[in-house]
Sequence to fold (485 residues):
Amino acid sequence: MKTEARSILRAHLVPRAARVKLMKSFVSQCSLVLLERLDTPATRFILSHSDFSHVFRAKKQKLACLIPEDTALASAGIRRQVPEIGLVLSESSSSAIAELVRACQEEDEGCPVILVCGPKSVGKSTFNRYLINLLLNRLPCIEFLECDLGQTEFTPPGCISLINVTEPFLGPPFTHLRTARKMVYFGETSCEQETERYLDTLKYVFSAYERDVPLVINTMGWVKGAGLLLLIDIVRLLSPSHIVQISADSFKDMPQLSPEYTCSSTGLHTKGKGPLKCKSLGSATEDSELGRGQGNFHLPRSGHKLLCVQPEFPGAGIAGDGRTHSSVLRDMAVLSYLGQLQPSDVELVLPVHSLVPYQVPFSAVSIKVIHTDVAPAHILYSVNASWVGLCQVPDKVQCKEDGPVLLTQTPICDCLGFGIVRGVDMDKKLYHILTPVAPENLRLVNCLLIGNIPVPNCVFLNQELKGKYRTSRQNTTMAFQVPGN
Fold:
């Protein structure tokens, strides 16, 4: 171990005297933590906006440093704290984690499907991260189903996605955006107005789960009133083997989601079974009683195991300024995604208006505004300067020579990525789109979905215009598939 430690220190700590000093205190129980500066095109793009220039700035030490090592850590923004300030796991949390890790390692019981639920600000995201990172010490990968539209972990906001997680994730969401195995752009940060489309979308994404590795499901913090009824529908749809219910002592609006309760209670779009029928969950004919169009909703034959967790960290269950914090995280996720447009070999941050967009003919893609009704004559005003989902619908685009191709209904389809419509050329019938999506995937895109996810204001306000605004076309790559080509 000392030999390995010396080689690591030699690569990262140049002065020999410093290495010798550290090795004198090295024992078998020691850990070496290597801190590297997070310097990527995405982080440089985020820091170029004044609203977020302070994100990685270390806070000043109020107390004098105790030992030289504290000084080094303080320079990286890490301070010595009392134990109760850090990651505080309650006894119920530790017990639930241990049981879930054990269940995921047992090969004879099938792969667990773990649904984590609870109100806002009780630590659902932290629980998911801690659980998945522990599981990755024992398993090569974990599947993650994102059902929370407003606080997505691996994608920009407004998405329902299925992610294959192979590496630990420690930072806030904008530091680890990843490509989903399957993703649908819902276009809203809440589903309160369109719960049926939400369930249909969730069903579509969940169909890609192959049940060959454990699945962790993240749910919304909307668990009051209709939100609770919707959660019952989600349980019936996804049929989890384990439900982790996290709830603070002060929260009394959510009953325990026992197998008996989720079986007998009426959901928002499904009917409950009587208490007698709950005892025979193996009957396949009973699924027909779940109401209109609910044939794919079901309960596991043996029910699920409920694990109740009581968080003990300060402020558990107190939303406070969570809404403001949530909107900031959403903006940073969008900025991080747009940061992928920055060249990796150039340290200077290029303004968005200087990047060359793709030119996409009106006839190549259909469009739909999914969060509100827009008159066809005004549709291009909605598209211009908007955040769009680049999607693939199974039907071919019906070409129109005189204007954009409009969809009458919102499709539930694969989303391959996102972009900004930087401009609309009415004379040449072209959309100008900025996107980091690879050209080979862009050729599959035949639909643009415009939702209620805004481009952060700082993107528009932070652009330094020099000279006349113009678009360079000679270097533009045509990567979207045009019908007939």
User: Anything to note?
Assistant: The radius of gyration is 25 Å.
